[in-house]
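Quick one: structure for this chain?
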Amino acid sequence: MAEGPTIGFSPFSMPSAGVLIVFCDDALKLGPATRGLLGPAAALVARAAAADRFKGKSGSALDLMVPGNLKVARLVVLGCGKPADMKRKDFVKLGGIAMGKVPSGATAATVVAELPNKAMTIEQTTALALGMRLRAYTFDRYKTKRKEEDEAPRGLKVDIGVADPAHTRAAWNARGTLADAVVLTRDLINEPANVLYPAEFARRATALKRLGVAVDVLDVPAMKRLGMNALLGVGQGSAHDSRLVLMRWNGAKRDAPPLAFIGKGVCFDTGGISIKPAANMEDMKGDMAGAACVVGLMHALAGRKAKVNAIGAIGLVENMPDGKAQRPGDIVTTMAGQTIEIINTDAEGRLVLADVLHYVASKYKPKFMIDLATLTGAIMVALGQQYAGLFCNDDKLAERLAKAGEASGERVWRMPLGPEYDKMIDSKFADMKNTGGRWGGAITAAQLLARFVGKTPWAHLDIAGTALGSPQTETNKSWSAGWGVQLLDRLVEDYYER
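Got it. Here's what it folds into:
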């Protein structure tokens, strides 16, 4: 897991070195503890703000070098706008902005977690710390030389001044696992495919055992016995054997039905015989982002000892154009007994998910199933990279996902399902074909998945736009944001742990 800053919590105090970060509102008002710490330098802030036309708007910053009588090397004043309007996700973003003001090479930073009218709450402070951890993330383990401007702060110690250090520290010990989970997810997605192939991915998932997660790994013979021919067909052209990883977290009563999360884990996708164009094919190392999110989520739930039972299931394959590879025109029989005609071997993720969804639904009888997959380019045409596509057979689950998305900042937009689209994947030779053509491609992919969930409440998240080449934000400067972990953790916390 990538290294991050060391974050600690202590009473409000003036540091003797490093960077000091404080907050003001859109009236340039500072909190009482902040004013007390700054002393005469508070007047300097007011003069500098006037000279720099700094108004304290949300996300704006006033940066002072060697500020007056203070011993710190740098004073940064961050604007909060109107603090009364801020939600938890705004404090995560604020933490990202704060970390962005810490220069590379800095070894110490102090943050005064105080709003103009009162100290930040414990929840607000841990959200701030989460944003700082996420912004500090970098994936450069394979660089032998680093440019100074590209470096994240290393060996950095961040001290957050709070009103109640002991309780804040205890809360961060629990909530900080969410930061670890997102970092883990980003690391998995960013790894090259020659390092992270199915067996290695499965090995890394077994590290969750140290958090109390039960992990089982099924190999090719085990999946053959189960009849998972759709999943196995995708990987049969690869030198790396496929795997199915099953993770179980038991945090509720033994007989409580589990929540189930399923991830597409195509460790590299050439398209197979229906090979992709060479341009940008390197991005297909991230075609396992759904599986990475599920591993990250299980880490988050176990790390904070969530009071739920949860199943994480990931189908791990590599789609290669070998002489033994699946061909267009082939017909495979799924574990459910339904047959699929392969029209395009690059429509492979839905084949993996079909077998895993059926297996989870029949074996575990979950309360709901949510799958995540970098499934279609079509969803990016529809939604760009700001929202993930949501397909769902249950209105309550869809509504809860939408609300959790707004609260976490990882937003989803509901897309249609319907019998008209279902007809587009009917096959002349099998029960269905694996693609319905160009039009409504994200929808017809979801319609295929829907045939394998039975009556279980189910949601499919097409994360092709949000998980790879992720938008650069105040909390993400990585190629992959590790999208989905915060969304699903929030869903579980808000609706299923009560």
